[in-house]
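Sample 3 of the quickstart, ligand flavin-adenine dinucleotide:
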Amino acid sequence: MPSHSGRQVPALDDPAFRLEVQSFLNGLPDLLVDASDPLDATRRYRSALFEAGLAALDYPVEYGGRGLDRRYVEAFRQEASGRMPREIGHVYGIGVDMCLPTIRDHGDAALKERFLRSGLSGEEVWCQLYSEPGAGSDLAGLTTRAVRDGDEWVVTGQKVWTSGAQHSDLGILLARTDWEAPKHRGISMLVLPMRQPGVEVRPLRQMTGVAQFNEVFMDGARIPANWVVGNPGDGWRMAVALLAHERSSIGAGGGRQPIPTDRLIELARHHARTSDPLVRQELADLHIGTRIIRWLNQRDDIHPSITKLWRSRQGRAAAAVAARLAFPGGPAWVGASAGDSEPDGFEDPDGSHWAYGVLDACAHSLGGGTDEIQSNTLGERVLGLPREPAVDRDIPFNQVPGMNG
Ligand SMILES: Cc1cc2nc3c(=O)[nH]c(=O)nc-3n(C[C@H](O)[C@H](O)[C@H](O)COP(=O)(O)OP(=O)(O)OC[C@H]3O[C@@H](n4cnc5c(N)ncnc54)[C@H](O)[C@@H]3O)c2cc1C
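Result:
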């Protein structure tokens, strides 16, 4: 059985590093004072972080990193907790937290040279081209195809739920390159240049009213032949490696946040509900959940699905409490205006963010793999339970009914 015992990450005893981080954080208000919009603010932040040598603490020095260990990453997170200006968004999260670590760990020297520095410094934005209309939880059933044509791959197919594709320069793409190999063995991981005629991005409006994710149509899109992460046909192993980064990042607080408990306490005060024993109990449970997630993240070698599941449950529980406290204002909310940015934060007890947060909470248990899939993963990989039965795992993919290539 694999070891996921969860050792505590040792605390960092390096006051000079902590001062360095604090000094960088102190400069953020001035850096962002005249940012034109959240995208501009996020770009400025990323570029300044890189210039300060704080963007890639655990990356090799030759790619703009500092070559430090995980204690420094954790110390940065501790220092930055609660101090990030609200206008800084998540547009770089998929690149920095998921695609770039996968390239760092599995890409060849040419890929690292081409993509790491530009991604870490914020010159290029990435998206994740995994899910398809017929392949979400069953990701290995994907049917987007990439065919070699001289010095290039030619890609045809459709992706869906692609967060941030509208801002992206590059996409980490899973495509089928061998239809005769079994399902998991004919997939390759490629890097797709998003800004080309063969790629069309169409926004999808969510029930929150904003359009943060998209459909992506590829029709004869072109990729240089050597932009393959790992080897052709080894894409499933790469995909799993990237998903582990995704789940750790979500578990550790990347991307969408559960509604903070202190904001819910304020909301309860505003509605004169702090003496209600049920509300008090729910708020105490949420406080405990926040602490547990924080402690889980201080552990090393813990399976990322554990923290991902905790965050997802916390996100939904916090939204349910918010809905009960904010009623009846929530259902009357008319939705955010067009665009892809969230409404303002949870400071105003009558603000529109409450309804946004309640509706958006469904996404906690979907993005990055559903709760059921995390539980399956834990059952199989951590508890050593038998694999889920599958009739299509070991036969050539083009012999699976309906997949004749
Ligand atoms: C906010 C958000 C952002 C996203 N961003 C991206 C992105 O950037 N890039 C990307 O590629 N994808 C993205 N996704 C897609 C996400 O990864 C998929 O929605 C998710 O993997 C589920 O796939 P599906 O939607 O096709 O649901 P399905 O796979 O059709 O699942 C439907 C239901 O069946 C259950 N189910 C399915 N199979 C099993 C099983 N074997 N055992 C038990 N239960 C099962 C699921 O848990 C779920 O409840 C995003 C999704 C959301 C909500």
